[in-house]
Amino acid sequence: MLVEAIGDYLQWVKSVEEHGRSPHTIRYTQILNDFLLFAISKDIVWKDIFIIDTLEEFRKYSGFKNASRALIVLSGYLFSQGRIDKPIEIPKPKIDLPDIYEHYLLYQGQSLQLGGDHLGQARGMLACFHRYLEKHNIKLSNLKIEHLDEFMAGFKVAHSTLKTYRSHLRGFLKYLYREQGILQKDLAPLLVGPPLFAQSKPPKFLRPQEVKKLFANLTLSTPADIRTYAMVYLVYTLGLRPVEISRITLDDISFQKGELRLRERKGKNPITLPIAEDTLKAIAAYALKVRATSPCRHLFLTFHLPYRPVSSATVIHSISKAMKAAGLHSSSYWLRHTYAQSLLHIGRSIYEIKEMLGHDNIQSSQRYISIHTELMRKVLFDEEL
Questions:
Q1: Can you tell me the distance from the alpha carbon of 204 to that of 209, in angstroms, rounded to the nearest whole number?
Q2: Where in the chain is the domain with CATH 1.10.150.130?
Q3: Count of CB atoms within 10 A of residue 198's CB?
Q4: Of 357, 236, 359, 235, whose CA–CA distance to 300 is shortest?
Q5: Predicted local confidence at residue 227, as pLDDT
Q6: pLDDT computed for residue 301 by the predictor
Q7: I want to staple 315 with a disulfide (CB 3.0 to 4.6 A). Which of 83, 242, 267, 302 is the partner?
Q8: C-alpha dihedral, 37 to 40 to 44 to 50, nearest 10°
Q9: Which residues pair with 377 in a beta bridge?
Q10: What is the pLDDT of residue 202?
C-alpha cells in the first residue's frame, strides 16, 4: 500500500510541476524511497505509518534535511484522496499561562469571535507580561500604571508594533476590571503611547484614481494571483475583514442568488450580503480553476499539501502585496475603509454603514469614515477632487 501511495503521489507531483504549481524537487523522491525502506525495516503497519511518533523516528533515522516535510506533504496528499483518516499535523507549542490569562483568552475568543492569529499574538504578549510580574513580584491586584509604563518601555520595536502590544494589554486590563473585579481602577485608558508630533496622517482610504490603479495592476498569471484577485474584490465590494474572508466556506456562497452568508462576524452579527457580479466571477474563477480538490469546505485554501484554510495573515499579505505591486503604500484595511467611504458617498447613513461593516457600536464605524472632502469641495468651491 505504501509503495502504491508513494508512486501515485510522485506521479501527481510530476503532473502539477508541468503546470508550474508545485515547489517539490527530486529530493522528495529520494526521501520517500528512504522512508519506504525505513517502514519495511521497522515492519510498520499501515495504520501506524502516518502518525507523529513514526515521523519523529524517521526524522532521526534519515539523513535528509527535509525528511519531516516530505512525509507531512505525502500524508496531506493521501488525506485529500481519502486514503487515510487524517494527515500528519505537528502541534504548535502552546504557551501555558495561569488560569486568569487562559480565562481571558477564552472570553476573547467566544465573545468577540477573534481569530486564532489574534489570540496567538495576545497569548505571546500576555506571557511576556506574566514573566515581568513574576520577576518583580507584582500581583495583578496591585498593578499600577507605573508598572505598565515600565513594562512597555522594555520593548524596542516599531511604533506600530508597540501600538498592537498596548491594544492586547488594554484588553486584558479591561477584563480584570470589568469582568473579574481584580483591579479597583480601570487602567486601560491610562495605558497610552507617547504623543507623536509632526506626523502626517492622511485618511486611510484609496482615492478613485488609486482604486483604478490597483485593479489595473491585478493579474491572473498564477494561481496565487487568481486567489488574490478574488480576495481584493471581496474586500472592496463587501468591506470584509481579513479574518472573515479566511472563514468563508463554499456553503456560504449562493451563486444562483448572488449572495454571501457571513455566519461568524465580530460581535456575533451574522448577515447575508449581495455579491456584485464582478466579485462573483472572481470567486468562480478561483474556485473552478485553481482551488485545490479537498474535503475541506473553506473557500480559500493553501496551495501546498496538506491543503488547509488560509489564515487571516495570508489574506492580509496577499492584498498588501498586490497593493505594493501597484505602487500603493497602503494595507488591506485601506480597502475596507474605502468601502465605508463609498457607502457614505452614495448617501448611506452612519447606521447603515455600521450594519454593513459588522460593528457593535456606532463609534467603531465613525472611526472608519473621515470628512467627505469630495462633497465639501463641490459645495464650497465647485471643484472636482
A1: 15
A2: 99-190
A3: 4
A4: 235
A5: 95
A6: 94
A7: 242
A8: 30
A9: none
A10: 46
pLDDT attached to residue 79:
85
Task: Please provide residue 112's backbone torsions phi and psi, each rounded to the nearest 5 degrees.
Answer: -105, -5
Residues with Cβ within 8 Å of 246's Cβ and at least 6 positions away in sequence, in order, are 115, 298, 300, 309, 310, 311, 312, 314, 315
Rg (CA), the chain: 25
State pTM to two decimals: 0.53
Tell me the residue length of the chain: 385
Q: What is the CATH number of domain 99-190?
A: 1.10.150.130
Q: Which amino acid is at 145?
A: I
Q: Could you give the residue range(s) of every CATH 1.10.443.10 domain in the chain?
A: 208-379
pLDDT for 253: 94
118: its cell numbers? 489574534
Per-residue exposure over 88-111, b if at least 16 CB sit within 10 Å of its own CB, e if not? beeeeeeeebeeebeebbeebeee
Phi, psi values for residue 243, rounded to 5°: -65, -35
Which residues of the chain fall below pLDDT 50? Answer: 19-23, 197-203, 362-366, 368, 371-373, 375-385
CA distance 260 to 252: 6
d(CA 15, CA 8): 11
Q: Using CA atoms in the order 268, 271, 277, 279, what is the torsion angle rounded to 10 degrees?
A: 0
State how far the Cα of 356 lies from the Cα of 339, in Å rounded to an integer: 10
| Residue 362 CA: distances (Å) to CA of 269, 339, 345 | 14, 16, 18
CATH class of the domain defined by 208-379:
mainly alpha
Amino acid residing at 116: G
pLDDT of residue 127: 92
